From TrEMBL:
Name of this protein: Lon N-terminal domain-containing protein
Pfam families reported in the protein's UniProt record: LON_substr_bdg (PF02190)
Membrane-crossing residue ranges in chain numbering: none
Alphabetical list of Gene3D superfamilies matching this protein: 1.20.58.1480, LON domain-like
Annotated Lon N-terminal domain residues: 47-241
SMART domains listed in its UniProt record: LON
Taxonomy of the source species: Bacteria, Pseudomonadati, Thermomicrobiota, Thermomicrobia, Thermomicrobiales
SUPFAM superfamilies with a match to the protein in the record: PUA domain-like
Domain of life: Bacteria
Coiled-coil regions listed: none
InterPro entries referenced in this protein's UniProt entry, alphabetically: Lon_prtase_N, Lon_prtase_N_sf, PUA-like_sf
Amino acid sequence: MGRLYEVARSVRHMERCLRLEPCRRPILSSLQRLHRLILTKRASTMPTTLPLFPLNTVLFPGMPLPLRVFEERYLRMLEAHRDADPIFGVVLIKSGRESGSIPEVYLTGTAVSLASDRHRMSKRGNIVVTGGSRFRIHDLDWSREYGLASIEYVNEPAPDPSEIEGVLHETKDLLRRYVRGITRLTGRRFDHVRLPVDPVACSWELAARLPLHSRERQSLLEQPLTADRLKALRYTLRRELALLYGAGAAGLAMNHPGGSFTLN
C-alpha cells in the first residue's frame, strides 16, 4: 500500500508538469491511464471500513480540498487514522449540521488522502486532502461519535473513446464559451483553463469548476459512467449559458475549488 501511494504521488507530479507542455500530451494521456490503474489496484487492497467526515460540500476524485478541523471528535479521528491511506471519506450532509450533531449523509462519497507529507499533520487541524476513489456506504456506526462506515469502492470502467469523443469535445467547447461570457459580464480575468487529456479526469475537473448546488454536484458524483457524467455536464453548461446570455446571471466558481478553507 505504501509503495503504491508513493508511485501514485509521483505519477500525479509528472502529470502536473506535462500539462504545461502540449506537445507531450500523448505521454500525459498514458500517465493518466497508469494513474487510474494504480487507483484501481489500490482500491482492491483498501479497507472496507472508513471513517467519515461529513461536509456541506462535495469533493470529486482528483480534486484538492483544504480543511480546518476543530471538533474534538474529528481531531481524534485524524489522530487514530493518521497513518491510513485513505485517511477518511468525505460525504455530503443530507440533513443536519457539520458540527455538534450526527447528520444524515448521502451514501456515495469520496475517499481522501493527505496531499502533503502523510506522516505530518498540523496540530491545529489544518490539512489539505485530495479526492481518490468513490465509495458507497452499506452500514454506518456512530458509536465513536464520528461515523465509521462499511463501504464498497466504486470502480469505474474505462470509457469507450468512440462513445465519448463527441460529447467530450462539445462539453469542453461549452466551458470555453461560458468562461468568455463570465469574463465579459464581470470584467474578471480567469486563469487559462487547462483541462486534462484523460476523459475521466477531465469530467471531474469540469464538474469541480462549475458553480453548482451541492445536490447537483452530488448527482454528478453518483453518475456511474464517464459518458453519463459528461452528458449531464453538457446539459448543465447549456443551461448556464442560457442563463448567462439571457438574464446575465451566473456563478463564479471557475478557478480551482481548493482555493479557500472549508470550516468544519
